[in-house]
Amino acid sequence: MENMKNKIALVTGAAQGIGLACAEAFAKAGATVVVSDINNTEEQAQKIIDAGFSAVSYKCDVSDAKAVDGMVDWIVRKFGRLDAAVNNAGIQTPQRPMAEITDEEFDKTVAVDFKGVWNSMRGEILQMLKQGGGCIVNMSSQGGVTGFAGQAAYIGCKHAVIGLTRTAAIDYASKGIRINAVCPGVILTPMAESLIRRNPGVEAKLVKDIPIGRLGRPDEIADAALWLCSSGASFMTGHALLVDGGFTIH
Fold first, then answer.
1. Catalytic residue positions?
2. SS3 for the chain, per residue?
3. Sheet holding 54-59: strands in order across?
4. pLDDT at 128
5. How confident is the model over 69-107, as pLDDT tens digits?
6. Residue 2: is its pLDDT beyond 80?
């Protein structure tokens, strides 16, 4: 599949897990991928290059609006344009009831999980307006359409990402910019694998409510994000695509 051939794509939160899978998928589809994260991504970008594809690393804190603007400016100076973006960077709050979440924990979650998407979208959209179009995918969650005990700040942000996606999609649909969201279910990321190793039996509990009967893989989320940015989804905008093994219909 080379539906992103000669395109420039940005993936935030790409050091591991879903973000890294997205970077790899876009690269395999022919894009030059900017592998961005608050942590260093030189090793990840090099592995993509070693596999015969095109990538560069860029360190960026998406909660810092100036840093995000600087990243987009750098991409445009280096490559001339930005065709696709996956705004994946995010964190989770410690699991506890809403009234026990501290102001600091709340503010940090909002700064990354919601304002980070806001910052990224603004910079991406301004560039895409200049060049006449582009595609954006925001990473929400199955929690963006449901509730989840002990995760009020995180879940609130994921709901907000869907609202932002839908509204911005209306704002820019006539400008050639498509904006969608992906809502992953429980995915076997390094974080999930660590949790399973520390807590025998937790995987069975997680799988119990997934009709397909297993956890998802990062590449399955990456494929959804890639498709939403491809010509195959040319009539889709403002959609929140659930990729959750059927959890939300259970």
1. 154
2. CCCCCCCEEEECCCCCHHHHHHHHHHHHCCCEEEEEECCCCHHHHHHHHHCCCEEEEEECCCCCHHHHHHHHHHHHHHHCCCCEEEECCCCCCCCCCHHHCCHHHHHHHHHHHCHHHHHHHHHHHHHHHHHCCEEEEEECCHHHCCCCCCCHHHHHHHHHHHHHHHHHHHHHHHHCEEEEEEEECCECCHHHHHHHHHCCCHHHHHHCCCCCCCCECHHHHHHHHHHHCCHHHCCCCCCEEEECCCHHHC
3. 54-59, 32-37, 8-11, 84-87, 134-139, 177-184, 240-243
4. 98
5. 999 999 999 999 999 999 999 998 888 999 999 999 999
6. no
- Give dist(CA 114, CA 152) in Å, integer: 13
Question: What single-letter amino acid sits at 184?
Answer: P
pLDDT at residue 130, as a whole number: 98
- Amino acid code (one letter) for 210: I
Return the pLDDT at 3: 85
Give the per-residue pLDDT at 181: 98
pTM metric for this prediction: 0.96
Amino acid letter, 50: D
**Predicted confidence band at 1 (pLDDT cuts at 50, 70, 90)?**
low
d(CA 80, CA 32): 12
**Superfamily of 8-186+218-249 according to CATH:** NAD(P)-binding Rossmann-like Domain (3.40.50.720)
High-pLDDT (> 90) share of the chain, %: 88
